[in-house]
Predict the 3D structure of the following.
Amino acid sequence: KIKLPKKTARRYPAYELYLYGEGNYAKENKNLLLTGIPVLFLPGNAGSYKQVRSLGSIALRKAEDVDFKYHFNFFSVNFNEELVALYGGSLQRQTKFVHECIKVILKLYKDREFAPTSVAIVGHSMGGLVARALLTLKNFKPELINLLITQATPHVAPVMPLDKYLTDFYTAVNNHWILKAQELRNLTTLSVAGGFRDYQVRSGLAFLPRSSQHDSALSVVSSAVPRAWASTDHLSIVWCKELILATIRAFFDLIDENTRQITEDPKKRMSVLNHHFVRHPAKMFEENPEAFTELTGTSTWITVKASKWTYSVYNDSDGKYFIFPLASHRKSYSHVYCENTLLDTSSWIYGCMNSNSPMCLEATDLSWRAELLPTTKVVMLKLQDHPSLSHIVVQVPPTVGNKYTLDCEFFQEDSRTVQLPVTHLFSFGLSSSKILLNSTGLLYNVQLQHFNRIYQAFKIYIEGHCQSLKERKPSVYRLHIPWSHEDSITVAKVPSLTEISAKLHIAQPQNDSRIPELNIYSSSDCHYEVILKTSLLQVLGQMIRFHAGALPVYVVSNILLTYGGQLSTLVSTGQCSDFSLELVRTAKPYKVEPLISIVVFLQGFNWFREIRESLSLPEMDAAVLSSWDAWFPLVSLILFLFGTGIAYWSGVFFSTSLRLFSSLWLTLMR
């Protein structure tokens, strides 16, 4: 526990600041003579300050690996496990306390050789929002934070807008970030969402507001993060080992060798985050990789003229270079695609400039254009974009004990891109779209046409048929959403039938015409059949995911309509009718639906919005959701019917419970 100034401790008696440590490191830092790089962890709603241990522990192991050349000091704030997602009154107080903590942390490093001038922050859930709110404080200096990583933080809006404090806090934070976007250029922000397993904060809310600065903010879903490729629930995002490793690796790559602190260069910070969280080339991060590489050694050079090539390596004691002349392929093919199942971090594919000999001594390293997938690393080049390349070279280094495969093929883009129109929402899974991929290529792109709204949800079945029964590498299926980093990856053994769910976290922006794709990284001797059907259950799931906050309102409106019916029968007949019977008689959608539709329509006019604001009425849920492209057709009617069902069965449950308990009570009293 870090001792705070008396004034701060008196003003915030419920809050505390801690430094994380374990083993010898903890003993050495008892006297707080710190020499590392400060990182502050902020827990979320009802979160514990002890959740920092996952980050702190793995960072310590990595520091041991580099003999403490660099290390991080992880601090954590104890917010007394306050329920800030349910009551927004504490958020402002938490934000001010974090500001005081940052000042205290930086004072601990005073007069050190490499003293930090800023702090990196990791915030889970509402802790990420508190970190963003620091910049709204009047006396806060933006240069005190250089990096902000948020985990499953609802940035766009509260999950449940339960009070005015919460909605006002969100409005203030988001407006400040939009208006002061230029001032925030030096702050690099990464938001990681949990994906479909996070039932508390849907990933669409975790994407930083679109109009905020693009060049220093990045939003990703954990299912798209290289080497994680998994969705996490709301709590496990804090201790998911693959995500923690990506975060800590990024922290170490962000260190500036001269200052021994996190780099001040925003471009380098973004390129490190892109390397670890968006597209990993299966190489260690280098800020400025060398433009040319010398291909030396006593390796054998082998020319390959075929348009399709496979090579299996096992205990290869001599290194080899396979050289592919491009001149003969440029007329017939548009792309070249290569893959390598050896998942090490060394360079393996190069491009030669105007080489006429069967050898190429100086080449450009194309391994930086590779992308890491769960079972392979792949490179795809458009030949037209590289007119100066005369050859492509694939290197097989001397290997002992490693068994892996290299594949390359030249192809025409049109032959590998197929279009699959998605089925209509109201087909209810009865009809399907089907396509057969007959050619024996290594890569297919299936474009899912008209898949752009969040209320669309499909099941995609991919069946692989292979010509021989030999052992082969698994196929990788990637659902690629081009307008946001929310890809999901499935690995399947072939031959097999694989089921993939296709649904969106964010609808297609209005000015974006790109099409979602299903990328199939296949085995060369396999055929695939792709069948797509609308999944009614998942459509309802999307509806609940986006509109669950409005459901209690519909339940209450059903109950109020029933009470109204009971009162009118009480007045007219002198008797109170049964709740369930009255609900069936009076709770009708046409008493609610037209009013909602009229208000949503009027919401489009400025004069109506001004009247609503002058009466201090809160913003309508329906209006907010239509502005995010998240308002479903018929959603209000469906929610009303859900509300009727919940109200009806709640009534049955309560009346049965009452009869049961009253009969027990009578028996005991007698």
Notes: The CA atoms of residues 600 and 622 lie 7 Å apart. The radius of gyration is 30 Å. The longest strand covers residues 457-466. The mean pLDDT is 90.
